Every structure is written in structure tokens, then in C-alpha cells.
Automatic annotation (TrEMBL):
Gene3D superfamilies: Homeodomain-like. This is HTH araC/xylS-type domain-containing protein. Keywords: DNA-binding, Transcription, Transcription regulation. The keyword Thylakoid does not apply. It holds the Pfam family HTH_18. GO terms for molecular function: DNA-binding transcription factor activity; sequence-specific DNA binding. Signal peptide: none annotated. InterPro entries: Homeodomain-like_sf, HTH_AraC, Tscrpt_reg_AraC-type_HTH. Residues 154-252 form the HTH araC/xylS-type domain. The keyword Ribonucleoprotein does not apply.
């Protein structure tokens, strides 16, 4: 993978503030705020959201942000676990000395690799995965309160991740959650500022881009895989959301 390609997938910012431009609207972010010797406040930015913090502490933190398709390159269980830590809680406070030291050491290794003249994308991805797995394990051990609406958002995202290729109707997910479609949309709009349909469509676009970039899939095959009735309806949908047709998008990535 060449330099320009991996730079579009993962980025480290050492001087983060609320005006820092992220990789894209489809990127996920983790801001590590170092408040004391044995304390790290971890702030998560899920897809389609903003960081829930007032003002970062200048040079006392580090921002990692990466495209969500980076985690899709691994197995579905890992991807769901990552989505879980990003959508369960906006912050995670790590105070246990050994865990703080472990996270700091992994971040330093990631920084060294990222800014190295011989940087390896595989190494970056591996180090990021190790950090995420530590955060997943730590969060799973924390007994933090979680409101019912946040649980419903997470359950919706989990269901969608598994079923979006063949279930694109919001009513299906509302039935699975035992609430009305109207109530589901109210909860999602309150927490994510998006309706179920908009979130599903964003996921379809992400998947379409991933397949167009990483495989030899044709527009016809992709339209069928994503549940569209015709190539023309898929092409219109893709162009409306991306700005160019699937064919043009694929050729741009190959050039």
C-alpha cells in the first residue's frame, strides 16, 4: 500500500482542538486526554457524530482517527466490538496505573511507526487494533450506567451491521427492538441526528465504496448485493450521495 493510500485511512494529530479536520464524515476518532500521571480520559467520536467534550487540553493529548472500513478489513466480531465501544459511552476514564502505562506505551509505539520514514500500514493497523482491543476489554469490565435510549441506539447499530445487506427497511429494526418505527427514528435523531433510513443508507455507501476499491466487483453485482432492484437505481443512489457514478468513483481510485 503506497503512502498516499494509507494516509487516507488513518491519521494522528498531536495538536487537536475542536476545529481539527478529521479524515472524513465517515471516520471514527479517539482523543486520549492525559490529565495526570496515572489518568487518561478517552473520548470517542462515533460515525456521524462530534466529540462530546468542551475543550481539549492542548498539547496534553493525542487524536487517533481512522476510516471505518479499516476495521471492516478484519472479522465481523471485532468490527462489532469496536462499534460497541464507540457507541456505548462518549468517554472512558482509565485510572488503573498498569492499564494507563500500557495504553501510553502502545500509543508511543503507534506514534513512532506513524512518523517513521519506513512506516508500515500493516504495523499501524496492528498497533491500532491492539489499542482498541485493550479499550474493549477495559470497557467491558467497567460497570457504567447506560440509559435505555443509548442501549437502543447501540442495538440498532449492531443489528444493522449484521443485516443491512438484506434488510434496509426501518420497520424491520423497530420490530426487532420492540418499538415503533416512529419511536426508533425519534431515538436515533436525538442521539445521532439521523433517521434509521439515513444511517442504513450511509452504511450502504460505505460498503459500496469499500467493495469498489478493494475488489473487482461490477456495478451490476454490487447493486444486487446491496439489495437494489436495478443498476440504474443503485447508480442514482450512489451518485446522489457521492457525487459521481460508481464507475467513475472506481476509476478515480485506480488512477
Amino acid at each position: 500500500m503506497n503512502l498516499n493510500t494509507w494516509k487516507t485511512k488513518i491519521k494522528i494529530d498531536l495538536n487537536f482542538d475542536l476545529n481539527t479536520e478529521l479524515l472524513s464524515d465517515n471516520s471514527m476518532g479517539i482523543y486520549f486526554e492525559f490529565n495526570a500521571v496515572n489518568s487518561i480520559m478517552v473520548h470517542f467520536k462515533p460515525l456521524n457524530e462530534l466529540f462530546k467534550l468542551n475543550s481539549p487540553t492542548g498539547g496534553k493529548g493525542i487524536l487517533l482517527h481512522f476510516q471505518r472500513d479499516l476495521i471492516d478489513e478484519d472479522d465481523i466480531e471485532y468490527a462489532l466490538d469496536v462499534m460497541s465501544i464507540f457507541n456505548k459511552y462518549p468517554q472512558l476514564h482509565i485510572k488503573e496505573a498498569r492499564e494507563v502505562e500500557r495504553i501510553k506505551r502502545l500509543i508511543e509505539l503507534l506514534k513512532e511507526e506513524y512518523f517513521s520514514s519506513t512506516v508500515s500500514y500493516i504495523m499501524l493497523k496492528t498497533l491500532l487494533k491492539v489499542i482498541l482491543l485493550h479499550l474493549i476489554r477495559f470497557q467491558n469490565n467497567e460497570l457504567l450506567p447506560q440509559d435505555i435510549y443509548q442501549k437502543r441506539v447501540f442495538h440498532f447499530l449492531e443489528l444493522m451491521e449484521i443485516n443491512f445487506l438484506h434488510e434496509t427497511n426501518a420497520e424491520y429494526y423497530a420490530n426487532q427492538l420492540g418499538i415503533s418505527t416512529k419511536r426508533l427514528n425519534q431515538v436515533l435523531q436525538d442521539k445521532l441526528n439521523l433517521t434509521a433510513k439515513q444511517i442504513i443508507q450511509q452504511r450502504q455507501i460505505t460498503e459500496a465504496k469499500r467493495k469498489l476499491i478493494r475488489s473487482a466487483v461490477t456495478t451490476k453485482e454490487l447493486a444486487f448485493e446491496l439489495g437494489f432492484e436495478s443498476i440504474s437505481s443503485f447508480s442514482r443512489f450512489f451518485k446522489k450521495n457521492v457525487g459521481v457514478s460508481p464507475t467513475v468513483f472506481k476509476s478515480q481510485q485506480e488512477s
